[in-house]
Amino acid sequence: MGQPNDTSRAIHAAVLIAGAGPTGLAAALFLARRGVGVRIVDAAPQPSVTSKALAVNSRTLDMLQDTGVSERIVTQGWSARGATLHQQDKEILSFDLPTTLGAPRAITVLPQARTEALLTEALQAQGVIVERGISLKSLVQDETQVTSTLVHMEGETEEVKSLLLLGADGARSTTRQALGLDFAGSNLPEPWKLWDLQLDTPLDPWHAHIMFEPDGFIFLLRLQANLWRVIGNGHDPLGALRRTCMVGPVAWQSQFHIGHRVAAKAAVGRVALGGDAAHIHSPIGARGMNLGIEDAYVYADCAADALAGDMTRLHDYAVLRHAVHKEVVRRIGAITRLVHGRPTWLRWVRDEVVPLAAHLTLARQLMLRTVGGLDHPLKTRP
Ligand SMILES: Cc1cc2nc3c(=O)[nH]c(=O)nc-3n(C[C@H](O)[C@H](O)[C@H](O)COP(=O)(O)OP(=O)(O)OC[C@H]3O[C@@H](n4cnc5c(N)ncnc54)[C@H](O)[C@@H]3O)c2cc1C
User: Fold this and answer.
1) What percentage of the chain carries pLDDT values higher than 70?
2) Per-residue pLDDT tens digits for 106-132
3) Which CATH number fits domain 13-80+110-187+260-340: 1.20.120.530, 3.50.50.60, 2.120.10.30, 3.40.50.2300?
4) What is the residue with the minimal CA distance to atom 4 of ligand 1?
5) For residue 287, is pLDDT > 60?
6) Residue 344 burial (CB < 10 Å; 0-12/13-18/19+)?
7) CB of 271 closer than 8 Å to CB of 306
8) 370 FRET partner, CA 20 to 30 A, in 53, 155, 237, 334?
9) DSSP-based three-state secondary structure for 283
10) What's the whole-number average pLDDT of the chain?
11) Ligand 1 mutation target, pool 138, 218, 276, 295, most atoms within 8 A of CB
């Protein structure tokens, strides 16, 4: 565990981080590299093993460059060379993802569990160990500190005093609820289905693929060898794939509900929110994990300044990130509704207008900037 950089004996950690997903891990890493004493706890007894986010975007690699994690992500993952749109079985457009968009690669494919493991290793090298099986239960803050109640898996309760608290505790964030913040937005009505499965397919394995189907869409991205990620919202996405592919054994299967929501504020006083605790949206655009790591990067800058005496920097974090969260969730929500293809008039736009628009350089640049995470400037100061 890192030591607090505050000499007060009452303070147990300069920053307490609740949640060791990609957001919490990245925040702990950025802070520890600045010499800030952090403590990071996670409710789960073990690290997550699910692949969830596959796409690490170029901005994330940029931000993690100095930590050595980017190099390992690039070595262990593979770089997507392009994307192809299909209308059912007919290819309508194929284009390359450039290798430079102000960063080395637009998209590097690596399962989220591996990205988290690499962040954890880098954090460990800074002397910070993730404490597992410990949940944030409640918090109170005053002018000088935050007092958090943590519950250990064995039932023991602990009171921790920190100068700051970062809630990186996911979509159902206890931190957000303790702050009494709204998580306004909407949900799509039907669940989306996900498979990681073996596929024998004529599709280009170096491209991401989106297929527009009459009852929805299918997204495909290869994880490794013949193992592919398939996400679909229609009645029978695998049945649709069987028209052209041999569908093999399933390695992981899930289904999830899509919401587009933003917390009313990204920080209140000494307590901030980052990652899914502050914003959720569909996986289209591959932004969730990447945006959480971006929150962590900006938070570390603001929090380090706040600990050095400039408390206005927490307000900066709240203002800067809330604006980004609203804009990214709005944009991904709009793209998702279009790809979703419901109601019927939107399906007409998707099937008739999108293929034409996608040939336009401007439309393609916009899309590349969205998946590369470069659709807004990375600002740590207003
Ligand atoms: C199928 C799927 C595909 C996706 N694809 C992509 C993609 O390609 N690219 C992308 O960028 N994103 C993608 N995402 C989104 C991405 O997985 C999430 O946005 C990301 O995991 C958010 O990270 P986080 O650290 O903010 O939250 P989480 O990963 O949810 O981590 C939160 C952590 O907090 C812990 N926790 C919860 N409550 C408490 C508590 N009270 N006290 C202590 N700990 C607590 C949890 O155990 C968990 O470890 C995808 C998501 C899904 C479901």
Assistant:
1) 96
2) 789 999 999 999 999 999 999 999 999
3) 3.50.50.60
4) 53
5) yes
6) exposed
7) no
8) 237
9) coil
10) 90
11) 276
